[in-house]
Amino acid sequence: PHHGSRTSNSKTFISHVNPAKVIFSSGRNYRFKLPHPEVLKRYRRHDCAIWRTDVHGAIMLSTDGHGLTVKAFEG
Asked: Measured between alpha carbons, how far is 14 from 30 in angstroms, rounded to an integer?
């Protein structure tokens, strides 16, 4: 969802993609206040696991070729 601007997704998009995990790249105290609350609400309605770099710090994705693991390095 990029940084989570209000227009970065829609209900239709989320329904078609059907994500299980979502990562927002955004900075702490970012002047644009992203991710937007509406965007977060859309993903929460679909029971997506949400990680945010402004909250969780660095985020690492790893795979064994079958599954995906997400690890946050909160700091």
From this structure: 25
Amino acid at 3: H
Dihedral (C-alpha) 59, 62, 67, 72: value to the nearest 10 degrees?
-20
pLDDT in tens, 14-73: 999 999 999 998 877 766 678 989 999 999 999 999 999 999 999 999 999 999 999 999
CA dist., res. 36 & res. 59, Å (int): 20
pTM of the model as a whole: 0.84
Cβ partners under 8 Å of residue 21, min gap 6 = 48, 49, 51, 68, 70
> Which residues lie across from 60 on neighbouring strands?
71
Residue 32 φ/ψ, nearest 5 degrees = -90, 0
